[in-house]
Structure prediction request, 132 residues.
Amino acid sequence: MTGDPCLAASRRAHHDGQLMRQRRSRSQRGASFIAVLVAMLVVAALYLGYLKLNTVKTERAVGIAAIDASRVVACRTNRQTIERALVMWSASHADEAPSLAALKADGIGVPSCPEGGRYELDGRQVRCSRHP
Prediction:
């Protein structure tokens, strides 16, 4: 019993169609895996870019804070320098009242506040208008 050749051809075509569908579904599964992988890479790149942007902002804020702190220290150092100069000036000018103008008139350099504050004498202490 060899069977009908038309029936055998029909079965073979049906079997070939199933193989094509299986191959197509495997390739579609592969394509969807690649699409998910690409999407994950895009999300990771965006996330890392966001982190780097925030890190740069944080580093900049820390740098600005350090600069501000150094200006405060420089102002304090300038005031101490003026106070020492006043003590030295007072030793040779015992009968005169100390002032910043008197120091300048005697040729003693009076430093200025790095942030533009004004120095004033309060007794023997120098005060800055910007830094307490």
The mean pLDDT is 82. The first strand starts at residue 119 and ends at 122. Strands lie at 119-122, 125-128.
